Amino acid sequence: MSRLSGGDRRTVKEVLATYEEFIAGVMLRTKGGVEIYPVYFARGKEGVDMRVIRDVRDLHIAVIGLGSGGSALADMLVRYGVGQLPLVDPDTFEPENINRHILDNGYIPPISKLFPRLKFNKARAVMWRLRDINPNVSVQFIGAKFSSLPERPDLIACCTDSDACCQLVNQYALEHHIPVVFGGVHGAAEMAEIITLIPGETPCYACYEREGPEPEPSMEKYTDPNYDSTRAPSHPGLWADILMAASIQFRAILDALQDKINPLILARLRFPYSAEVIRQKKGCAVCSDKMEGLSLEH
Ligand SMILES: [Zn+2]
Predict the structure, then answer these.
(1) Is residue 35 in a domain?
(2) List of E strands, the chain
(3) How far, in Å, from the CA of 206 to the mean position of ligand 1?
(4) 135-172, pLDDT tens digit by residue?
């Protein structure tokens, strides 16, 4: 075994390991502002209607809700090359989120085992993650419940479990004339529901009548505004279901940017995989003063 001369008793392997750690540290500190993936991100331009948006880097998409689906979607958006991404979520990132979240243990401070209140806000931690993927992206976080946005985005991606929050986003978007793509899953994530709202053109989130009996107690996430998604029971493969739903939502966003609108997509995430586009009249009590719009289109 070769040993370094002098008083250093470490093996070459040990010295190299220290060197690697040092280099990794330097790279992490200096990568800000460096165009790491210029070719990769340049390809994103092809998917955007050039008449409306000149470059995918000019796109400004707000993500509301950075839980399972929102974090996966934000990851897809930043890799696509979206330039500006405000993130909104009031919750902290917990160890029990890891089995269905884009973040990992590195975003849970070891000291939080002793001091449980010392945890990171989900939106803040996802902001760090997105900057790791593309140091040139402009990301801001709002660590509170959604009420408004500091700047008007080109589109809102609504990824929250809370029906009350979706209704708020719906009203805000109608008021400020901002397109929204809502994404979520039903029940044990067997069905993805993707709603595209273009104010003045499509039905809004509230136009869709939720049919059938009142939700079961296990479905409180659709009715209870204080519902905590981090305590939802998990099931095998939930992360894969979430990724499928987030992928369909991402595709709906690309379609909306190119004026290809499917107002409501219901996609079955179990065999036999299938999807249908539901058409409905626009004009409910929220998006107009016409109450007859509540009936289904035949
Ligand atoms: Zn409506």
Answers:
(1) no
(2) 61-64, 84-88, 138-142, 155-158, 180-186, 191-197, 264-268, 274-278
(3) 5
(4) 889 999 999 999 999 999 999 999 998 999 999 999 99
Q: Do 130 and 166 belong to one domain?
A: yes
- Give the relative orientation of helices 68-80 and 122-133 as an angle to the nearest 10 degrees: 30
Is the same domain home to 148 and 206?
yes
Domain housing 14: 1-30
Predicted TM-score (pTM) above 0.85? no
Q: Would you state the structure tokens that stand for residue 251, as one six-digit string?
A: 């595709």
Question: How far apart are the CA of 283 and the centre of ligand 1, in A?
Answer: 5
Domain assignment of residue 37, yes or no: no
Beta 191-197 vs 180-186: how paired, if at all? antiparallel
Whole-number Å distance, alpha carbon 266 to ligand 1 midpoint, is 18
pLDDT for the residue 99: 92
How close is the Cα of 143 to the center of ligand 1, in Å?
28
Task: Please give the distance, rounded to the nearest whole angstrom, from the Cα atom of residue 177 to the centre of ligand 1.
Answer: 13
Query: Which string of DSSP letters, residue by residue, matches 105-170?
Result: GGGS-GGGGTSTT---BHHHHHHHHHHHH-TT-EEEEE-S--S--SS--SEEEE--S-HHHHHHHH
Residue range 99-128, pLDDT digits in tens: 999 999 999 988 888 887 788 999 999 999
202 Cα–ligand 1 center, Å:
8
212 Cβ neighbours under 8 A, 6+ residues apart: none
- Do 59 and 26 share a structural domain? no
Q: What does the block give as tokens for 133? A: 């993927």
